[in-house]
Amino acid sequence: MSDPVAPCSRPTADAPPLRTSITLPQPGTVLLDVHGEVDTLTAPPLEQALSDLLAEQEADRLVVDLSGVTFLASSGLAVLIRAAHRAADRRLRLRLVTASRAVRRPLQITGSEQLFDMYEDVSAAVD
Length: 127
Hints:
Number of domains: 1
Distance between the termini: 55 Å
CATH topology: Transcription Regulator spoIIAA
Mean pLDDT: 88
CATH class: Alpha Beta
Strand order of the largest sheet: 1-2-3-4-5
Shape: globular
Strand content: 25-35%
């Protein structure tokens, strides 16, 4: 007799690559929009994008929209935590849009959601 196994949500070989885009929705606010899976292969480009924004932008608010992220591995979580610390060095707090359970749950389980201001949608995060 076999036990039923719940499907797991992990990246597949045919998963689309990570996509990011940057917009300025209002003065003083930079929005980094992230789509796809954040895993060991895609975390480095995300880290570079966040590092570049934190190094170059003179924004009062940095919003990272993760509502298009379908998988967040520990490597992606580590990228977000490092970015939160770099933002704190600039006296900023990263604002994360975490509408999906795939993103919100790892942040909650690890207790790292305390490092961020978390929002359900972009409009609330940019205000």
